[in-house]
Amino acid sequence: MKQNLSEKLIIQKLELQQAGSLTDQELLLMILKSFSNLPDAKQRVVDFFEQHIDLRQLKFFVPADWQQWLGSPLAARQGNLLCEFAERLAKRPKMILGQVIGSCQLGNQLVDEFGLYQQEILIVLLLDTKNQVMARKILFKGTLDAATVHPREIFNYALHYPTARIIVAHNHPSGDPTPSTNDLRLTKRLEQCGQLLGIALLDHLIIGSNEYLSLREQEALK
Questions:
Q1: Biggest alpha carbon distance in the chain?
Q2: How many domains does the chain have?
Q3: Residue 157 needs a FRET pair 20 to 30 A away by CA distance; which of 69, 109, 132, 201 works?
């Protein structure tokens, strides 16, 4: 199916964070435009969709197919690598809270990752309605207190996804996961803000050198 491919309109969609609204043709065009030494990307897109049903056909391309379609050996290698990258992302298993991981498993996993960190960090995990972890990010580093950790940054991050609930975790470089007054105060603020936004705070984990503490298990969360 032929389509008017306007790069200006495509860029506008990207600037408005509307990449999900791009058609297959628009998406393929912008990917090819980023390839090195590839002339006439628009014509390459037209050629592809004249011969193939949709983008999934790229999965079955062998190096000779890439070379024939794109012409440039470098672009062919880039296309092949891009498909391999997408294939690995699609196969990567999802973390599922309560099924693949629970509080104990998650806490122990974070102890393994961050228990020996000498710098204090705060991690936010975003969960959907089925408690699947959609994203995870370190939002703060350094001395964490009420002045440096603000719920605004945490929930601003959460609102970029269809987030139903969040888990917050931070480490204690001292190795002792006993919650401080600031930890409890932050937990209460996050819980209250989450209630206003409809995004529940499922747990706040404190990571020590060899163990973790769940404020949900300690009944610091309602």
A1: 65
A2: 2
A3: 109
Tens of pLDDT along the chain (222 residues) come to 445 567 778 777 766 767 777 788 888 888 888 776 677 888 888 888 888 877 888 888 888 888 888 888 888 888 888 888 887 777 766 555 544 456 788 888 899 989 988 889 999 999 988 888 888 889 888 876 654 788 999 999 999 889 999 999 999 999 999 999 999 999 999 999 999 999 999 999 999 999 999 998 888 887
H helical segments located in the chain: 7-15, 24-33, 41-51, 63-70, 73-91, 103-114, 151-158, 181-197
Same domain, 83 and 116: no
DSSP 35-89: STT---HHHHHHHHHHH-SSGGGGGG--HHHHHHHH--HHHHHHHHHHHHHHHHH
Residue 48 lies in a domain: yes
| Cα 177 to Cα 183: distance, rounded to the nearest angstrom | 10
Its pTM surpasses 0.70: no
Question: Domain end: 91, 122, 147, which one?
Answer: 91
Last-in-domain residue among 91, 126, 144: 91
221: in domain: no
